[in-house]
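Appendix B.2, paired examples.
Example (i):
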Amino acid sequence: MAASDTETAQQQIDEIEALSSIYGEDWCVVDEDEKIYCIKINDCLDQPKWTLCLQVILPPGYPAAEPPIYQLNAPWLRGQAYTELANSLEEIYIQNLGESILYLWVEKIREVLIEKAQSSGPEPDIKKTSEEVDEDDGDDFVLDCQPIHEDPVKMLNYITSGSQEVDEELPPIHHGNPITDRRSTFQAHLAPVVTPRQVKRVLEKLYENKKIASATHNIYAYRIYCEDKQTFLQDCEDDGETAAGGRLLHLMQILNVHNVLVVVSRWYGGILLGPDRFKHINNCARNVLVEYNYVPSVEESSKQAGKSKKTRKDNKKRTEH
């Protein structure tokens, strides 16, 4: 008998509460409404050499009928290593259909990291990331922003300065629907970009709008994929809203969007919102990304995940026969 929606929702709540209790500061809620979470996993050494971030989106049918939508993030994880780990996680899901499997996934990843740490292989070549903690609301979210320059404003000014500057075409700028809560208003703006110079041009154009320029905060993040190097140029800016830029970039990483700049303007209404302000920033950003087809809606993602699950099951049946 299939689990009811209420039972499935309760299973998700119970699993999330358990994982939060088990992993403490390493567990992070990125967007509670959209059921987006991440966990930082390491090799359990006093000074960890190998670290990986697992991000998951829980579709409405998980765990009864749908798998989690997941992404593995680590600078050293690519190619065959990524494929092997992803296959291991999907095998765990198939072996435990209908069950909560996030804990099993986390411990499988940790097992892989410990094996790497105990082997004679070299340490991963990972650049240090900046860390900033928002102390206002007691939320221990660590900013997982990997800037290509220590100061994004200086970086953009540096790239766009000089006598040989090329006047690139200004990309189209789109504006999302505003969200208002307790007199604070949030609105996202989006532009397709393929160079940091375009990022600078878009920001300058936005600031020509007196309303946007007068916003209390203009938080932004961008990701640009460099095909020749197969790497991402990515950066973020808090504009005084501590850790907000890092959270926005983190959302974009989870959604795997690229060649896009997202700016979220906030006009403060005089009432402190606490952690809700981050929820509104992320919701604004995600809504505009969905609206302009950079990411599928939750319903479309869930359908695609269900198709992938059915394909895996069909392939397994054919193999058995």
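Example (ii):
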Amino acid sequence: MLHPTTVINPKISSTPAIICSCLIFQPLQIFFINKQIFIFIFALLALPLSLLFFSRSLAFHPVQSQILHLEFIAALSPTRFEARHVWKESRETAIALLHCNFLYFVPSFTLSLLAAVSSVVSAESGYHRNPIGVKSVLNAVKFTWRRTLVTSIFVYVILFCYSSVPRTLWSLTGGGVFGSGFVIWVVGSAVEIYLMAVLGMSLVVSVLEERFGWDAIFIGSDLMEGKRVCGWVLSGLMGLVTGLIGWKMEGLKMDSEDLAKKTRWTAVMLLKGWEAVGLAVLYGAVMVWGYVVATVFYCECRKQHVVWEVEGGSVDV
């Protein structure tokens, strides 16, 4: 889905300028070009997805605490019979929690897929100063969701497999706050941020090009050549913002748990509900902004790797 038209900004060479352009200036211009579409995406897709995420986190926190409490009691039980009884109760609670998580997963994944495709298509259109309508976005979703679905499965599997690597290295080296444990944490975090940058680029590729799976991931990595540091910084900044929101949410859950010891959980949800809604609105906006940033970075990288197909051949520009 490449357009031989004039883009918003001329080619920018310096790394700080690219970061500022991709993170702030161009996303703002793109938003004003397709502001109605982005408001539509935020209100109908990103915000409901964010509310689902935060409501699940708040609602299931007491159950997760109960499971941890039961496991702690089982580990301290004086007899095997008592420990087995407590473990059984903990396992039944964990299975029920897993079923509830699955019920949340289906609508969450669907909304996430639709939000990603529609945001990327709208951002790419705005990048080339081409306003887009709702019908065009719906058509794009209809023709590209399968590719994005396959690529997102690859992304989740890769991130899941990598998540165990730092913990395994930590346990093999003995961990520790300082020394080898700290080095593993720093290097592991840096690699994870870069991996997220490449995988985010691959999702954009699967939406805008007829690529999916490993092919989209390899193309995304190749496109970042020469701008890998920019991609790493952009991924780190977006991860920092979402991490701060998650940290605030964890604090909110801890406060709710303390209040729940003094009053009913329903009252706690009423007291803390507005704070959670505020975080959900912020997270939904950051989610859409992240898709736009990733799309702008893709377009900047693609300008250096444009391939035009001409009657069965190709010409590199």
